[in-house]
Specification:
The structure is a single chain. Helix content is 81%, strand content 0%. The chain has three helices and no strands. By secondary structure, it is mainly α. 6% of the residues are buried. Helix 2 packs across helix 3.
Length: 96
């Protein structure tokens, strides 16, 4: 049996491994995707799919919420920074 400290350390290492795996695979996926799809279009589609998936998951959990005009305004501001500034320029830089 593991002690509580060892159990905690195992959980931390598993979480770090999952972050490493998902983040690394994201960079590799971007690298292959920009060979066939324009960088900003790929990032826009990727973020839209992620947002729809998250909204679907909250809907399936029974946390149905209606979007307000303020929610959409804040979402568009965040989308600008996430898609164009962060992911878009990262993908643009990986184009060859």
């Amino acid at each position: 049996m593991l002690t509580s400290k060892q159990n905690h350390m195992v959980k931390v290492l598993v979480c770090l491994f999952l972050v490493y795996l998902s983040w690394g695979s994201g960079f590799i996926a971007i690298r292959f995707a920009v060979e066939h799809i324009p960088a900003f279009l790929m990032c826009g589609v990727r973020m839209t799919c992620a947002g729809l998936l998250l909204y679907l998951l909250t809907w399936l959990r029974g946390e149905r919420t209606s979007l307000t005009r303020a929610d959409l305004k804040h979402s568009f501001v965040l989308a600008f920074f996430m898609v164009f500034i962060a992911s878009g320029f990262l993908a643009k830089g990986q184009e060859s």
